[in-house]
Amino acid sequence: MALIIGLTGGIASGKSTVSNMLKEKGYTIIDADIAARVVVEPGQPALQKIMNVFGPDILTAEGTLDRAKLGAIVFHDEEKRKQLNEIVHPAVRKWMMDQKEEAIAAGKKTILFDSPLLFESNLTWMVDKTLLIYVDPKTQLHRLMARNGFTEQEAKARIQSQWPIDEKKELADDVIDNSSTLAETERQVNEWITRLRLES
Ligand SMILES: CC(C)(COP(=O)(O)OP(=O)(O)OC[C@H]1O[C@@H](n2cnc3c(N)ncnc32)[C@H](O)[C@@H]1O)[C@@H](O)C(=O)NCCC(=O)NCCS
Ligand SMILES: Nc1ncnc2c1ncn2[C@@H]1O[C@H](COP(=O)(O)OP(=O)(O)OP(=O)(O)O)[C@@H](O)[C@H]1O
User: Fold this and answer.
1) What keywords would UniProt list here (predicted)?
2) Bridge partners of residue 5, in order along the sequence
3) ipTM higher than 0.95?
4) Which residues form ligand 1's pocket by a CB distance below 6 Å?
């Protein structure tokens, strides 16, 4: 029996950073952000549905989704974000479940879903346990602005489109605090692996 763990957090809290540490140790990560890109590739039904709602201008000249343009709309408009989620999320869930079945068939013992919206989207039924990658809100804002080159207003719009990370902290089974150095985070990751006796 494989153990399925939901790895979640807030935007720029360090989910990819911790996922990469776990990947290097041989664990299997299934990434919802990657799923959300695959399911809107040209020719996919979700892309056509996005065009129907947001208009043909939401595509680039090459016919791919203009992510910057769509982001500028949906992170400032809750209704539009809900419409986008309703199109993309079912396809994301299916892609992740298919990947999970493949990993189980390959004999993997621990499978992590890296999913920023695990709590918001009520997806905890898909996992046996949850791990929250926490960052204090001030550091989160600074890291998001630095990584994406966002203004404070743009970064706050994205952070506010998710549940507050302090609320998620209360809901998670385990928490890794990524507010400090990468070395300190790796120490907590190792401790967590040992405590749960995770096999890859
Ligand atoms: C709006 C889009 C085009 C912006 O693309 P962009 O390349 O700028 O961002 P990217 O996809 O890499 O997401 C970065 C982070 O933003 C946050 N985020 C993305 N979508 C959402 C959303 N619908 N609600 C809240 N936060 C979100 C997550 O923390 C994610 O890790 C894209 O995020 C998207 O299609 N979102 C809808 C699908 C979705 O919910 N993805 C999240 C995982 S299922
Ligand atoms: N402990 C740390 N110290 C310094 N910088 C860090 C640390 N952890 C992460 N970062 C940086 O913070 C930014 C956000 O981290 P990361 O991309 O891992 O977050 P994420 O939760 O995966 O983000 P998203 O929700 O957008 O997918 C990145 O630029 C990363 O290099």
Assistant:
1) ATP-binding, Coenzyme A biosynthesis, Cytoplasm, Kinase, Nucleotide-binding, Transferase
2) 112, 129
3) yes
4) 11, 32-33, 36, 67, 70-71, 74, 81, 84-85, 88, 92, 116-117, 158, 161-162
**Closest residue (by CA) to atom 33 of ligand 1?**
71
Contacts of 42 (CB under 8 A, 6+ apart): 63, 64
- Give me the pLDDT at residue 1, please: 85
Residue ranges per structural domain of the chain? 3-36+96-196
Q: Helices 67-74 and 78-105, interaxial angle, to 10°?
A: 120
**Average of pLDDT values for 134-139?**
98
CATH superfamily assigned to domain 3-36+96-196: P-loop containing nucleotide triphosphate hydrolases (3.40.50.300)
Distance from Cα 13 to the centre of ligand 2, integer Å: 6
Dihedral angle of Cα 19, 190, 112, 100, to the nearest 10 degrees: 110
Q: Which residues line ligand 2 (CB under 6 A)?
A: 9, 11-17, 33, 116, 143, 147, 178, 181-182, 185
**What are 58-89's pLDDT values in tens digits?**
999 999 999 999 999 999 999 999 999 999 99
Residue of 11, 44, 141 best suited for mutating to test ligand 1, as the one with most atoms within 8 Å of CB = 11
